[in-house]
Description:
Blueprint: H1 6-20, H2 25-38, H3 42-59, H4 65-68, H5 74-84, H6 94-104, E1 116-124, H7 126-134, H8 136-154, E2 160-164, E3 167-174, H9 178-191, E4 196-198, E5 201-203, E6 207-214, H10 221-236, E7 243-245, H11 249-267, E8 273-282, E9 287-299, E10 303-305, H12 307-317, H13 320-335, E11 343-347, H14 350-353, H15 358-369, E12 376-381, H16 389-401, E13 405-411, H17 418-423, E14 428-431, H18 433-436, H19 449-465, E15 468-471, H20 477-486, E16 490-491, E17 500-501, H21 502-513
Parallel strand pairs: 6-7, 9-11, 11-12, 12-13, 13-14, 14-15, 15-16
Antiparallel strand pairs: 1-3, 1-6, 2-3, 4-5, 8-9, 8-16, 8-17, 9-10
Helix pairs in contact: 2-3, 7-8, 11-12, 13-15
This protein binds ligand C2E and magnesium ion (2 copies).
One magnesium ion is lined by residues 292, 347, 379, 409.
Amino acid sequence: MLNFSSSFKTKFYRASTIFSSGFGAASLSLWSANYFIQDAGEGQLLSVTGSLIAGLAALAGAGCAHAYFAGGDDRSADYEEVLRKDAVTGLLSRNGLEQVLPTMLEGIDDIKSMQRVFLICMDFDELRDINDVYGAEVGNAVLKVLAKRLSDLVGDTGPLVRTNGSEFVVGLRTGRDDRELRAAVAALMDTLSKPVRIGAVTYPVYANGGVVQVHKSNTPIDKLLRQANLARACAKKSGRGSYAIYHPEMSHSATYRQWIETELTYAIQRNEFTLNYQPQYQMPSGKIVGFEALLRWQHRDKGAISPDEFISVAESCGFIQQLGTWVLRRACFDANKFSPDTVVSVNVSTAQIEEDDFIDTLQSVLAETGLPPSRLELEVTESVLIRDHARMRRIFDEIKNLGVSIAIDDFGTGYSNLTNLSELAFDKIKIDKSFIQKLGPAGKLSQTGDSGSMVSTIINLAQTLGATTVAEGIETEEQSEILQREGCQIMQGFYFGRPETSDAFIYNAMAKIA
Ligand code: C2E
Ligand code: MG
Ligand code: MG
C-alpha cells in the first residue's frame, strides 16, 4: 500500500474537492495520472485508468467525486472521511450530506408514503461580528458549542451538517402532521438562539431558519439548499429566531431583489428618490424639536417601493454609499428651510459609517449645504455597537468632534452591552417601535408585560448614561401618556404626525406653531 506524504494528502484533498465540483475534472485526472505513474506498480496503474475514466465521466456531467472513489480501496476511505466531516465541529460536511441524503430519501417518491423529509437550514449573523471582534478562534469555539447543542438535540434522528460559515443543516423525517415539523423546528431555533458562554464572555446568537420539503429523491442538493436559504432570508424579515417554510413565491422574491438591485442604479439619475420628514415632539411642551428624514422611492413603473424592501438590497450590493450620501446632502439642504431650532435626523447604515471616507463626506456635505453641524443628527442602529468597538469609538468621536449628534435607533432589538454603550459618545436612544406598540391600551405600564418593563428599563438606562430618550412609533394617546409618565422626553409616531414631504411638512408645522 502507498504511504502518502502529508503534502500529497493536501494536494489530493484539494484536487478531490475541485473534482467533486465537476471543474477541471479532466486536468485533475491527468495530474493524478502523472503522479501515480512516477512509481506505480501494475495495481496502481489500474487505479490511474480508473481515475481517468471517472474524471471524464464527471466532465460529461455524469459523475462526481464519489465515482472516483468507487473503487473503494483503503486510501480513498481516508479521504472520503476528510470530505465527509467538517473540520471545525466534527459534524457532517456538505459532501457528507450528499452521501447520506439518498438513504434518508428512500421511499419518498411513493405518493402514498406517509413520511415526509425536510431539510432545515439555520444560520446566525453574529459569527461575522464575533470573528471580527474576538478572532476566528473564538468564532470556532462558538461554532463547536452550537454543534454540540444541536447534536444533543438531534441525536441520530437525522443528518446534522455544517455546510459552511455559520450555516447548519438538519435533515428531518416526519409524518404528515405539521405540528410535528413545527415543534422540531422550533426546538432547533431555540437551541441556536441561546447565548453562548465561553470563559467569562457571553456571546448572544440569534438564528433564522429556512425549511424545505424534499418532494423528489432526485432533486439536486444545491437546489434544495438554495430554496431553504431563500426561506431563511424571508424569515429574517420577521425578526430574530424566526423560521419560514419554503414556497415557490419566495423564488419570485429573490428575482425581485435582483430587479431592485438593477433599478436602484438608475433611480438617482431618474430623480425617483425623495425624502419625507416625520416630526419629533419634545414633551411635555409639545414643541417640535426635530424631523427624521425617511427615504421614499417612487419607481416609474412599479410605484412606491418601501425602504424595508430596498435599503437591505442597497446595503448588500454596495449602493448604499452613493444613496446614503444623496440622502445626507438632500436632508441637510432641506433642513435649512426648517425652523433653526430644529434638528434633522438622518438614518445611516452600518456599511456607510464604516467607509473610510465617511467623515470626509460628512464634512463636505455640511460645508456644501451650509447647515450648522449642531442641526444634524445621525441615526445608527444598535447593531453598530457590536462592531469593532475601538473603531466605532473613534468614528463616534470624530462625528461628535464635528459637532454632529448621534442617536441609537431601534434600541432594544440589538445586543449591545453596557460597557460598549457607556464608552461610546452618543446623545439619544430611540426605543424601538415594536416595544411602544405593545404598550396600552389599558394605560398602565405594569399591565403591558415584557414590553412595559423593557421600555422603563431603556428609559432608566438612557438616564444613567446621560442620553435623551426618544420613543418612535407612537400611535395612541395611551402610549404617549405612559411614555410621558415614565420620563421619555421626545415623541415620534403617527399619533403626532406622519412622515410628509418637506413642503407639506413646513406648511403643517408652521400652522401648528402659529
Ligand atoms: P426607522 O429609522 O426606525 O424609521 C421609522 C419607521 O417607522 C419609518 O418607516 C416610519 O415611517 C415608521 N413609523 C413612524 N411612526 C410610525 C407609527 O406610529 N407606526 C408605525 N407602524 N410606523 C411608524 P419607513 O419610512 O418605512 O422606514 C423603515 C426603515 O427604513 C427605517 O426605520 C430605517 O431603518 C430605514 N430607512 C429609511 N430611510 C432611510 C435612509 O435614508 N437611510 C437608511 N440607511 N435607512 C433608511
Ligand atoms: Mg430611524
Ligand atoms: Mg427606528
